[in-house]
Design a protein that fits this description.
54% helix; Beta-Lactamase; elongated; Helix Hairpins; 4 domains; 5-stranded antiparallel beta sheet; alpha+beta
């Protein structure tokens, strides 16, 4: 239905004013006539009454006309302004999709409000985009970010910091002292307020203790802090220090023995054949120990760096086990040990032949070293039910206490350090076994009962696995 055209407000106002003027003119004219006519009858009572009546009627008519005009003008103005008022109220409440549609009489005001609405919409869209970008960046950062207001309440905290400090999702708005008690953050915040820039490393207690590097800066009373989790870096630094200390200690003992023996021989012991032979044997034994230690260190370095190139193939497992037994037979016979293979002929596994031999040599040799005389060392192999091959090396030795098992594959870890060195161990054999098993794409685990024996289980995958050079696999040891 077509909306009837309406005259502009200015024209309608002019019509109303003209109407009002006509009414007033008629009123005044009526009053004037009544006065002229009443002059002749002013001396009579009836004439005075007539004059009063005419005057009152004229006033009533004029007042009614004025009221009608005022009401009409009010209705017109209200109908023209109400849509604009409602649109302005909606804009104030945040509804930027509204578009002002007012009376054509107020067209300029409507257009200005519409331009304001579009400008506010563009500004809010830009602010939302910036907010979303900021949120995406903060949530994607590995570093923790914390923003505090002047009173120390949390304004911003990202996902990484929630994980570092084990914070709840609703911490925004909470005081820092309530959510991070005992972590040392309060002290850093206070120092930042005084010095404006502070860098400190703190420890975060909990189920998984962390070391965190905090850099805090103050600006206009607010505190912005960035948190970097350095737990893994500190762990690796500790491992490196321990490794250097362990290697130094392992080298010191044989080197000291060799030097002492040489000095004794130079002092005259070489003149005595029996003494000379004894000290030469000491030199030879410690030199061999140094050689094994260096070889194990080199093997471990190649494994951890991914520089050991494997060439998997179908390997007859029983043949490899017999070769391993041959290398350990002399030491086992000296201790009256039985070396037994339960692996059937024709059993094959996917593995690098030399690496598999080294893995089994370390396990069998380890059992020969630490088992008592008369013990039995048995090797078996079977399917694990998932297509992989499970190789087990079990002995009837003294066993290993449960508290030592989780660390047994760490470098230089020894259950009995003195006994291990006396047996000629380097402390690296089981670490090499672990890395070799992982290089095959498999794994190794250990179980033991004190007084009954120990069992090492190596799982090899059904398909060949070749780790390319330069692709090191992370190690937990």
């Amino acid at each position: 239905m077509t909306r009837p055209a309406r005259a502009p407000l200015g024209i309608r106002l002019k019509v109303l004013v003209l109407t009002f003027g006509v009414v007033m003119f008629l009123f005044l004219a009526g009053v004037g006539v009544s006065i002229d006519e009443a002059e002749a009858v002013m001396n009579t009572t009836d004439g005075a009454r007539l004059h009063v009546r005419v005057t009152l009627v004229a006033l009533a008519v004029a007042a009614s006309a004025a009221i009608v005009v005022a009401l009409q003008v009010g209705r017109w103005v209200a109908s023209a302004v109400e849509p604009l008022t409602q649109a302005a109220r909606s804009l104030g409440e945040g509804d930027l999709d509204v578009r002002p549609v007012g009376s054509p009489d107020l067209g300029e005001l409507s257009r200005e409000l519409e331009r304001l609405s579009r400008a506010m919409t563009a500004t809010m869209n830009e602010l939302r985009a910036q907010r979303d970008l900021q949120k995406t960046i903060l949530e994607g950062m590995q570093e923790g970010v914390l923003l505090l207001d002047v009173e120390g309440n949390i304004l911003i905290v990202n996902r990484a910091l929630r994980e570092m400090l084990a914070l709840a999702e609703d911490v925004v708005g909470s005081p820092l002292v309530r959510v991070a008690m005992g972590s040392g953050l309060e002290e850093i915040v206070e120092l930042a307020r005084k010095k404006r820039l502070v860098t400190r490393e703190i420890g975060i207690p909990g189920e998984k203790p962390r070391r965190v590097l905090v850099r805090a800066a103050a600006r206009e009373g607010q505190i912005l802090a960035v948190f970097v989790d350095v737990t893994e870096i500190r762990r690796l630094e500790s491992l490196r220090r321990d490794f250097v200390a362990n290697v130094s200690h392992e080298l010191r003992t044989p080197v000291t023995s060799i030097r002492s023996s040489v000095e004794t021989l130079r002092g005259g012991a070489r003149e005595d054949p029996s003494s000379a032979s004894r000290f030469l044997e000491i030199i030879d034994r410690n030199a061999e120990r140094l050689h094994r230690l260096v070889e194990d260190l080199l093997d471990l370095a190649r494994l951890e760096s991914g520089q050991l190139e494997l060439h998997p193939d179908l390997v007859p497992l029983s043949d490899v086990i017999q070769q391993v037994f041959g290398m350990s037979r002399e030491r086992a016979d000296a201790k009256r040990m039985d070396l037994v293979s339960h692996v059937p002929e024709g059993r094959e596994v996917w593995a690098d032949p030399r690496a598999l031999e080294q893995l089994l040599v370390n396990l069998v040799d380890n059992a020969v070293k630490y088992c008592q005389d008369g013990a039995t060392i048995a090797v078996d192999a079977r399917d694990d039910g998932g297509g992989a091959t499970l190789i087990e090396v079990a002995d009837t030795g003294p066993g290993i206490a449960a508290e030592h098992l989780p660390r047994l594959f760490e470098r230089f870890y020894r259950v009995d350090a003195g006994r291990s060195r006396a047996a000629g161990g380097t402390g690296l054999g089981l670490a090499i076994v672990k890395h070799l098993a992982e290089a095959f794409g498999g794994s190794v685990r250990v179980s033991s009962v004190v007084g009954e024996g120990t069992r090492f289980s190596v799982t090899l995958p059904p398909e060949p696995t070749r780790r390319p050079s330069g692709d090191p696999r992370p190690s937990q040891s």
